């Protein structure tokens, strides 16, 4: 018999009498909403949000169901972070989470769960506001996120849900000043983090938590791919996530990307073809940004098997998707221009080749390796 969210659950004031004072840790609730949370990450938003509305009815004063509803909106944004369609809704949803959590925190300043939701809500707001270059608002949100991350720490023996706060604090309190020195003063009043411990804690959360598992896996594969230089670990996580949530376009394109990174070109090609088919069929969340990735991987595949016609076709498609998503400064766009410029030069189309390389110089920052490659190629080939 399938158990759904609509089954009875204990009132909020009864939560914890049997297990824990925190709703986050209610195993019965976790069991009932597993399918609903999975629907969120599989981009079945209508199904997920119906479940979260029922949760809001059951627990009207707790931030958890409101946070999950906001998380659903965040994943509508994630595949195309430049799309501002859901910004106002998302920020308002996080404001509701903050309001609910602050009331809990006012009643009990030692409430780690309230601090967790405050850190999470401010953290998500800060992520979006920084993408929008609203630096003053992003800094305010970031300071609050760090403040409550610090207050939510120290519960690793209690539950991996709350350990996510520790993990992110430990990793990013070291990572932020290493990568953004301007923010060092913001961190001066907080305990020093431990990046290696933070990574280990993220792995623990990814293995053992319920609500935070996928978010921890999201951070892990991104860190493994970029900061930690462990592409096979990144691939293993995205392989799992795509298999678990096959309709999630962000996980799908990340899987294709990591296949490409480790040289599994045929598999990357197959996934990329499927991505383009889904964009054509207008699947939920599949859009130009994912198309830019997929078209570039296909172009690279066909260039390696010496099919210049198809390579050129997909490089041009990468440009088209890049322009649609306004991603002309991305590496995929720039290196597609370089590849097309080289092909044009080989075909004795000097003027066209020069045009492609000038486009690289236009969109790439001078220190970008693509800018240098374009300058050197123009000089060497006298374009």
TrEMBL record:
* Cross-referenced Gene3D superfamilies: Tetratricopeptide repeat domain
List the InterPro entries hit by this protein, alphabetically: TPR-like_helical_dom_sf
User: Looking at the record's lineage, which domain of life comes first?
Assistant: Bacteria
> Mind telling me what this protein is named?
Tol-pal system protein YbgF
Name the species this protein comes from: Shivajiella indica
């Amino acid at each position: 018999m399938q158990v759904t969210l609509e089954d009875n659950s204990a009132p909020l004031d009864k939560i914890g009498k049997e297990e824990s004072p925190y709703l986050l840790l209610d195993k019965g609730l976790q069991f009932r909403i597993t399918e609903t949370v999975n629907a969120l990450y599989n981009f079945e938003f209508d199904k997920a949000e119906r479940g979260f509305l029922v949760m809001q009815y059951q627990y009207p004063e707790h931030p958890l169901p409101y946070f999950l509803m906001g998380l659903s909106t965040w994943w509508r944004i994630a595949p195309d972070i430049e799309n501002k369609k859901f910004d106002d809704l998302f920020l308002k949803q996080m404001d509701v989470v903050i309001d609910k959590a602050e009331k809990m925190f006012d009643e009990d300043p030692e409430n780690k769960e309230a601090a967790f939701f405050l850190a999470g809500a401010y953290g998500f707001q800060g992520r979006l506001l920084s993408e929008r270059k609203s630096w003053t608002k992003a800094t305010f949100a970031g300071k609050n996120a760090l403040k409550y991350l610090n207050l939510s720490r120290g519960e690793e023996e209690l539950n991996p849900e709350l350990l996510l706060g520790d993990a992110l604090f430990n990793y990013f309190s070291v990572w932020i000043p290493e990568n953004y020195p301007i923010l060092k003063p913001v961190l001066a009043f907080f305990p020093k983090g431990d990046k290696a411990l933070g990574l280990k804690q993220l792995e623990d959360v990814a293995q053992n938590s319920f609500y935070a598992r996928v978010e921890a896996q999201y951070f892990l594969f991104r860190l493994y791919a970029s900061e930690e230089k462990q592409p096979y670990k990144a691939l293993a996580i995205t392989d799992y996530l795509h298999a678990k949530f096959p309709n999630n376009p962000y996980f799908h394109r990340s899987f294709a990307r990591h296949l490409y990174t480790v040289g599994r070109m045929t598999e990357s090609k197959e996934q990329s073809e499927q991505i383009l088919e889904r964009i054509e069929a207008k699947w939920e969340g599949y859009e130009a940004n994912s198309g830019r990735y997929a078209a570039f991987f296909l172009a690279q595949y066909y260039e390696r098997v010496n099919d210049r016609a198809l390579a050129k076709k997909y490089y041009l498609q990468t440009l088209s998707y890049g322009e649609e998503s306004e991603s002309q400064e991305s590496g995929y766009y720039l290196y597609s221009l370089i590849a097309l410029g080289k092909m044009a030069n080989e075909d004795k189309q000097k003027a066209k080749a020069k045009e492609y390389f000038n486009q690289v110089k236009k969109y790439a920052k001078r220190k970008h390796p693509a800018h240098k490659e374009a300058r050197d190629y123009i000089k060497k080939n006298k374009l």
